[in-house]
Amino acid sequence: MTEPYVDDLIRTFYALSVPPDLVDAVRRIQSRARIDLPKGLRWTLPEQVHLTLAFLGDVPADSVVKLKSILHEVASGSDPFEVSVIGVGGFPRADRPRVVWAGLTGESVHQIGKLHHNLWSRLEPDIPKPEPNDREFHPHITLARVPGPQPPKIAAWMQKHTGFEFGDWPVREIQLIQSVLTPKGPVYETLARADLGHNMAG
């Protein structure tokens, strides 16, 4: 089978979009961090925050039709639910994070893991998980990435904000998003969206 040209590949992922009130909360916590922490962290633009359900990486552009079909199929099989966004933490270790994230809690958090599982059960083996593919899925909202040496204050700052309340999140839809990498950072374009619990194409 002939491999696709690079121009025929697009970088995509499935995600839950963050509602405006949570975007405002992200903006507030980032404003605090810019005052309290040294420069050097790469903060996610508030208007681009999301929760990644399944990162596909580079896939053939002509697979988008199938990816949209999977999106609607998985969304229609899950009812809307609600979670709460509370606290700040870090991966891979709280004392030496490479990613600073906002956490989720609530009785329905497991629904996010179910969406993740259902998407990959439909995607594989046609679109295998990008390496490394053995990491346990941990739903979160990325607030910042920490390149290079660790700012000495970051662990204490995260500990101080473990109880920060971003707010409640009524999860109502899934999106298929294309990520275009640019020198100034990724630019996201929504290719399709599907309401949870609705068996209708859109």
Describe the 3D structure.
The chain has 202 residues and is an alpha+beta fold. The chain has one domain (6-193): Cyclic Phosphodiesterase, Chain: A. The protein is built from four helices and nine strands; from the N terminus they run E-H-E-E-H-E-E-H-E-H-E-E-E. The strands form two sheets. Strands 2-6-5-4-7 form a five-stranded antiparallel sheet. A four-stranded antiparallel sheet has the order 3-1-8-9. The longest helix has 17 residues, at 20-36. The chain is globular.
Structure described in brief:
This protein has four helices and nine strands. The chain is α+β, with helices and mostly antiparallel strands and 202 residues long.
List the helices and strands and how they pair.
Blueprint: E1 9-17, H1 20-36, E2 42-43, E3 50-60, H2 64-76, E4 81-91, E5 99-105, H3 109-123, E6 141-145, H4 154-160, E7 165-171, E8 173-182, E9 185-195
Antiparallel strand pairs: 1-3, 1-8, 2-6, 4-5, 4-7, 5-6, 8-9
Helix pairs in contact: 2-3
Record the strand order, biggest sheet: 2-6-5-4-7
CATH superfamily: Cyclic phosphodiesterase
Number of domains: 1
SSE-based structural type: alpha+beta
Task: List how many beta strands DSSP finds.
Answer: 9
Number of helices: 4
Which shape, going by the Cα principal axes?
Answer: globular
Strand content: 35-45%
* CATH C-level: Alpha Beta
In the CATH scheme, what's the topology name?
Cyclic Phosphodiesterase, Chain: A
- Kindly report how far apart the N and C termini lie: 33 Å
CATH-level-2 architecture: Alpha-Beta Complex
Taking all Cα atoms into account, the compactness measure Rg is 17 Å
Spell the H/E element sequence. EHEEHEEHEHEEE
Extract low-pLDDT stretches.
none
